[in-house]
Specification:
The complex is a heterodimer of chains A (about 525) and B (about 100). With about 525 residues, chain A is α/β, with parallel strands linked by helices. Chain A contains 17 helices and 11 strands. A two-stranded antiparallel sheet of chain B has the order 1-2. The longest helix of chain B has 18 residues, at about 20-40. Classes of the chains: A alpha/beta (about 525), B mainly alpha (about 100).
């Protein structure tokens, strides 16, 4: 394996800056890796679209600027020239954006998302677009209209979802950085089951302009990486106020990489870590619980004060989420009617009226999970049920926020397993939607309350990665990076290197690369 | 008795502009029944004194100056249209019989 692809984004950036590597070499190494392991029947299939030509052109531009030196080279962003993969829910000019749906197959965005504008301005070459559950609805990426993504740790298992493509790309060394989106755990749960790092920032701290909306009061774009420090660097790049997103927080984002560096000293003296009683035990696999308990010991040894906190209303969080989210879905997805964009499908018989064309278009364009959520949301919002379901769910949201407030009065950060289970086998939960929903039981409360969360690798259970989640109060994302980096450093000392080093070598799956 | 009947799903599908076969309706009614049963305890969780939260941050309306910002050109707006004519989106008949 080419050693370039094993570098973290921060290490790669340092080598680009000191001239020991060029950005073109870095991009080419990752494109070669993608060509070797992403295609074919047993390939990872993290990518839906590759953007090699543009990525190499941006890389060459960065190399030329660095080569020329002077003010322009000095002004380059520290991550300039480091390649990145983008979840295909985020719109990009010059490449198709599909949201993993047949409805949008081949759709070309006429504009860039704000996070993409920032990435282009900082000159990070974009490698391509990564696979996801259709419109980010799922926990396994199996609801993509364009095929499954495989988990690099075990090719017959799911990479998590909805951002399974971005997480798998990181775990398979196909990219050193990626963007994800997290509505109920779609960055953190894939991170957990692939042994990578992912962060859901405070709601509103990263612009959502150009992220195809699923549930607008919950959606958040965030960084995906192999190290805590890399997520901090990317988070600082993409964060900050955006007038184009009316839910954007009008305050600068900073101090995250510094917090990660502070954490990497391995000292958590004086930090109060709250263990959420309700997010462990029953429903959590024994191996997951063991790795979690070991992590608590490690945190304690690092000087953290471990306190138990109780969040009694979390038992209603999954229910509230599966009422609020589909309600917002049913509204947000009403625009997919085949009038202004998307693949219009005409009814095969009967009169050709716009209503019938909309219905046949939507039925042909949407997969089962999307339809299920639209119908559930339409039900929750309909007359006679609105107060009992949607109204009650919004009240539960208040109770969850109060639970977090009380917990954060006792602790600086909270900790739990990220996912109750390790990666399961492809196909094993497809016929049981409720079993699929339960994968997000530990990640959903953060979305309901708008607070930030991170997942870091916590070890293996039966050879598969377990994730540890930290949560912090809104606007206190820096605390996640400190605690996450500390646990990462202390566990890596025990493992004698990053957990990902223990992943099996991938065989070359295809000489042709992505179809 | 299922929490959501097949007829109810058919009505919801019509409201949501989704065309579904008899088999799909049957399957969906069963699945939604299981899901609704699992989440219906939410309706008893909070008392009348608990206010609703619609949004995680306490934001009020965000205003801007009423000036033209960056907009799409007509060509950009139409570039993904399934059908267009004379610079406009083209749709089939709005009413039956036209």
């Amino acid at each position: 394996m080419n050693e370039i692809i094993k570098l973290s984004a921060a290490e790669l950036a340092a080598k680009l800056r000191d001239g020991s590597l060029t950005s073109v070499q870095a991009v080419q190494a990752h494109l070669d890796r993608i060509a070797a392991v992403d295609g074919g029947d047993r390939g990872i299939h993290a990518f839906l679209h590759l953007n090699g030509e543009e990525a190499l052109a941006v890389a060459a531009e960065v190399d030329a600027i660095r080569g020329a030196g002077g003010a322009e080279a000095e002004a380059l962003h520290p991550l300039a020239g480091v390649p990145i993969a983008i979840k295909d829910l985020i719109v990009t000019q010059g490449q198709p954006t599909t949201a993993g749906s047949k409805f949008l197959e081949g759709w070309m965005s006429p504009y860039d998302a704000t996070v993409i504008e920032k990435i282009r301005a900082a000159k990070l070459p974009i490698l391509g677009k990564t696979n996801l559950d259709e419109f980010a609805m799922g926990s396994s990426t199996e609801h993509s209209a364009f095929g499954d993504t495989r988990n690099p740790w075990d090719l017959d298992r799911i990479p998590g979802g909805s951002g399974g493509g971005s997480a798998a790309a990181l775990a398979a060394y196909e990219a050193p950085l990626a963007l994800g989106t997290d509505t109920g755990g779609s960055i953190r749960q894939p991170g957990a089951v692939t042994g990578t790092v992912g962060v859901k920032p405070t709601y509103g701290s990263v612009s959502r302009y150009g992220a195809i909306a699923m549930a607008s009061s919950l959606d958040q774009i965030g960084p995906v990486s192999r190290t805590v420090r890399d997520s901090a660097l990317l988070h600082e790049l993409i964060g900050g106020h955006d007038p184009k997103d009316s839910t954007s927080i009008d305050a600068p984002v900073g101090g995250l990489a510094a917090a990660a560096e502070q954490g990497a000293t391995g000292d958590l003296t004086g930090v109060r870590v709250g263990v959420i009683r309700e997010l462990q035990g029953e429903g959590y696999q024994a191996g997951v619980q063991s790795r979690f308990d070991e992590s608590l010991e490690v945190l304690k040894a690092a000087g953290a004060e471990i306190v138990e906190v109780s969040c009694p209303n979390f038992e209603y969080a999954l229910g509230a989420y599966y009422l609020i989210m589909p309600s917002e879905v049913s509204s947000n997805l009403a625009k997919y009617d085949g009038v202004r964009f998307g693949n219009r499908v005409l009814p095969t018989e009967g009169p050709l009226t716009i209503e019938r064309v909309m219905a046949s278009t939507r039925s042909a364009g949407f997969g089962d999970e999307v339809k299920r959520r639209i119908i559930l949301g339409t039900y929750a919002l309909s007359a006679g049920y609105y107060d009992a379901y949607y109204g009650s769910a919004q009240k539960v949201r208040t109770l969850i926020q109060r639970d977090f407030e009380a917990a954060f009065a006792q602790a600086d950060v909270l900790v739990s397993p990220t996912s109750p289970v390790v990666a399961f086998e492809l196909g094993s939960k497809l016929d049981d939607p409720l079993a699929m929903y339960l994968n997000d039981v530990a990640t959903i409360p953060a979305n309901l309350a708008g607070i930030p969360g991170i997942t870091v690798p916590g070890g293996l259970s039966e050879g598969l990665p377990v994730g540890i989640q930290f949560l912090a109060p809104a606007h206190e994302d820096a605390r996640l990076y400190r605690a996450g980096a500390a646990l990462e450093k202390l566990l890596e000392d025990r493992w004698d290197g990053p957990l990902i080093n223990q992943a099996p070598e991938l065989a070359e799956s295809s000489k042709e690369g992505v179809a | 008795m299922p929490a959501i009947s097949r007829e109810e799903v058919a009505h919801l599908a019509q409201l949501a502009h989704l065309e579904m076969s008899e088999t799909e309706l049957e399957k969906m009614a069963g699945e939604l029944g299981v899901i609704v049963n699992a989440i219906k305890s939410v309706s008893e969780a909070a008392g009348d004194d608990v206010p609703a939260t619609s949004h995680p941050l306490p934001l009020t309306n965000v205003m801007r100056e009423d000036v033209v910002g960056r907009t799409l050109t007509q060509d950009q707006a139409l570039q993904n249209a399934p059908d267009a004519e004379d610079g406009r989106f083209k749709v089939p008949a709005i009413l039956e019989g036209e």
